[in-house]
Design brief:
Elements: H1 3-15, H2 24-27, E1 43-44, E2 47-48, H3 53-66, H4 72-79, H5 87-98
Antiparallel strand pairs: 1-2
Helix pairs in contact: 1-3, 1-5
């Protein structure tokens, strides 16, 4: 796994509330709150329920890698769309924690 993607995943897990045991991300073993992947049947609403936390983490890291070449701000907007989240705050916190710039390419 790309160490940079792993760091970004950990920062996103923080923003998605994964470290709170009462949070949906923790309960679903889905640290990125990933929605609707093909061939995934276990869901809570539109959110995937992974069988293990490791599988959920690996799915997040894989998704980050699949978006290689996109600027960080565009990728974060996918995960924290402005109609549902404070995307600016999400991006700011992820940038601070990861030491990445908003326009930096994944």
């Amino acid at each position: 796994m790309n160490p940079r993607y792993c760091l970004l995943a950990a920062c996103m897990m923080h923003m998605e509330g994964y470290y709170d045991t009462n949070n949906r991300a923790f309960r679903n073993k889905n640290p990125g709150n990933i929605e609707n992947l093909p061939r995934v049947q276990a869901t809570e609403g539109t959110y995937i329920v992974f069988p293990t936390a490791l599988r959920g983490y690996c799915a997040l890291v894989t998704d980050i890698g699949a978006n290689a070449g996109k600027p960080l701000h565009a990728f974060i907007a996918k995960y924290a769309p402005p109609n549902e989240n404070d995307t600016s705050e999400y991006l700011q916190v992820v940038c601070t924690l990861s030491e990445m710039e908003p326009d930096e390419l994944l």
